[in-house]
Amino acid sequence: MKRRVLLQGSMVYGALGVAASTGLLAPSFVLAEWPQSSFDAKELNDALNSLFGSNDYITSDKIHIKAPDIAENGAVVPVTVSTTIKNTEAMAVLVEKNPAPLTASFDLGKTAQSFISTRVKMGKTSPVLVIVKADGKLYGASKVVKVTIGGCGG
Amino acid sequence: MARKSIRIRAKAKRDTIEVKALLTHSMETGLRKNRKTGDKIPAHFIKEVNCEHNGKTVLRAKWGVAVSKNPYLSFKINGGTKGDKIKISWSDNQGKSATAEVSVK
Question: 63-102 in A: which are within 8 Å (CB) of B?
Fold first, then answer.
């Protein structure tokens, strides 16, 4: 059983190695572990510092957030983020007033468009902050989504 | 359950591939309580999603508990065509994982 786990583990790293050598993944996120402390962070700045090494971002009107003005159901809030900022490496979605703001982060390969659509849980009315990392810099935009029935289940 | 845990729709539009996926997962936050026993239902959520186009990773997502139950994910790839392969894999905090692959239509 241990040998099988060891082989499976080594196969995963082998696959990542191949992906890295083809150049479609920037080295910074090839071996990136799931960022526990970023997802655990209860304060927005702590989450940003943990995930990106900085909480300093430039507000940009080149980031587009499509989300409802009023969410019918806080458990399922559709959020579509896109940006025209060039050389986007990563995008992150943070729901500022959730117990832990960091909701999702996306590392984009070179052929991926800067476009992500997903659905998130919101505990209450909150700004939804989208951070874009491009050329080593952070850009951000925010939209307030009103929530009538909270979706964290707490 | 025989139901597919990852449904993928991948369409080529000119030379862009638009992918829409629906993953089956409870995405438990760990904050909900069992109404009968009062115990907290343990957190069970997808941590990582890997998306490949013809065998090369194009998108890696890292998720926390606040992604909705039965997560929806849509993304777009430049430079693809009908017949290309799209593969999506996920792994969760309890060591479970799943993968599915489709051809672009």
Answer: 75-78, 80, 95, 98-100, 102
Distances (CA, A) of B34 to A121, A122, B41: 19, 21, 6
Please indicate if any CB of chain A lies within 8 Å of the CB of B94: no
- Say how far apart CA B48 and CA B87 lie, in whole Å: 14
Rounded distance, CA A16 to CA B37, Å? 43
Q: Which residues pair with A99 in a beta bridge?
A: none
How confident is the prediction along chain A (154 residues), in pLDDT tens digits per residue? 555 554 444 444 444 444 444 444 444 444 468 999 999 999 999 999 999 999 999 999 999 999 999 998 999 999 999 999 999 999 999 999 999 999 999 999 999 999 999 999 999 999 999 999 999 999 999 999 999 876 665 4
pTM: predicted TM-score of the whole model, two decimal places: 0.85
